[in-house]
Amino acid sequence: MNKLVIDNHEFTLIGEHEYEGKLIVWGKETFISVDNFEEAEDLVSLIKEKINWINENKKLILDRFMIENGHYVDFVNELIEKGKLKGYSKITYEDFVSAFFVDGVTIYCPDSSIILDLQAEPDYLLGHLATMEIDEEYNIEFGGLNG
User: What is the DSSP string of 23-48?
Assistant: First the structure.
């Protein structure tokens, strides 16, 4: 099967074991990659299940991110106060958290783990993406900043 259709969005087979497409995640069209699958038959239901879980658990994902990264609110405010972030006003915890969106999702088969790349607008992560790792039992870990 070279193409899959999920919620009126087309996914295209790239190579032998990867599909790419876009779906709505946290209210925004988002790049989705599904890697290392063996059977395409159950793929649509797997993708829907994972994306639905991400959409239903935004607060949980962001809370887990903030456990290890809440200090960035103070860091951003220090940069603003020192004039190193021009055009910004001092931010609150809520401002920081509400700036995040999912930039990309990778679903790995057969273990069904997920990698989320979070980005912020305004760019409070200063050009970086925050990687969140979610295992097959939906345990969430912060995987670091990249970019």
Answer: EEETTEEEEEEEES-S-STTHHHHHH
